[in-house]
Design goal:
alpha/beta, three-stranded mixed beta sheet, globular
Amino acid sequence: MSHYQQEIQNIRHITQAQGSAWAAISPEYAARMKLQNKFRTGLDIAKYTAKIMRQDMADYDADSSKYTQSLGCWHGFIGQQKMLSVKKHQGTTNKSYLYLSGWMVAAMRSDFGPLPDQSMHEKTSVPALIEELYTFLRQADARELGDLFHKLDSAKENGRDTSHIRAQIDNFESHIVPIIADIDAGFGNEEATYLLAKKMIEAGACCIQIENQVSDAKQCGHQDGKVTVPHEDFLAKINAVRYAFLELGVDDGIIVARTDSLGAGLTQKIPVSQNEGDLAQQYNRFLETEEVHDLNSLKDGDSIMKIDGKIVKPTRLPNGLYKFKANTGEQRVVLDCITSLQNGADLLWIETEKPHVGQIASMVDAIREEVPNAKLVYNNSPSFNWTLNFRQQVFDAWEEQGKALSGYDRDALMSSIFDDTELAIEADEKIKSFQADAAKQAGIFHHLITLPTYHTAALSTDNLAKGYYGEDGMLAYVKGVQRQEIRQGLACVKHQAMAGSDLGDTHKEYFSGEQALKASGDDNTMNQFDVVA
């Protein structure tokens, strides 16, 4: 007996036990509604997606070509359309996730209006967006299954074979996928981190990403002025997230430990060393210091400390922050990553200033000397000028090989005059293969773009506005949007159905029978899209 038939049978037993009082309830309709709402709570989703992500991590360990990907989404509808598109074009949602970007929550979802990525937005907006994303993904499930049920009814009414439709129902693949959710630096102390992590997990998050910046001085990973915390402070927050997962029964929840040390030259405080060679001592060795030979040379308020047998004065700025030695970023990143993995993190995130496979690989190789299965979540960031970066990488490689470069200006390679050159074509090929190359050579398990839909919304809106308010008028929308939706088979062209009109009609028919007042019918303009594209 198929799963669908089993559900019908189960509900039939329930309704029959109630006698004539439940005679109006159709076991088949109730079974359909149950299948269309597979996930009752956010915790159900978190447990389901954690298993998916753990399996994906194991698959990647066995074969680096099996990396995963996601795009950042700032609204439930955007996440829904992304997964509908992935399933349509790839035939499966396998290895495809969603990313919840703190940057986009700050810029797009705060009651204060657009904000910089500095943890100034309401922390509750993060779990609210997780819940919203999963609400839209569940609606995608309900809508697609609803279409299959309609096809099943039509086939039965016309005496056609229904086995292939029943197989599609029984083997239906959900649009519910893992979300990697950004908790920034924890929005406060470790207790605040724990409380927010619980809300995020309850909303459905199976994976939480946390960074080692100071919470109240948090900066965007691609801006200056970043301040990191000592390892002990960061590990306390990793522990807080793990306790939240365990308390809520998501025993295999995933923690991504992000280090911003590559671009951070400052620390807020100096940790206290308890034992020779401990983490505090290792951290303090990276501080920029000046050896003190005469205590009388010290000024009021100066700090001194003993490092490796020497009395030194750490460099302190007027704002009280302490400086790290120059050119220690990569060493600090490696120590951060090893320490995080050895103390409860599952995945790493190294925030870099450019997309360079060799740079990432050099750090990952060093980490893997201590933790062989270390793997990364990597930000394929829109903050990088990908075109210029890769053209300059090719330029530098050619220069090293002794190739002729007289026709190129390294600093001007972004110019469109180079677009059709051999150098630009090779650079584009490297961009195209970046994810596969980095997965193979640099331990990147998951590739994400933090805020792509921020940029696509701006670009598509600009193109539409340019034509609509210009000479094209209505043709700008018809040719640039609606006709493309029809040609490319976007379900969203029937926006009423996408918003739930058909689902509502079906339910009203379940509840009211022939008395139901339905929105569908000959006068529904959505019928105009039932055409051959």
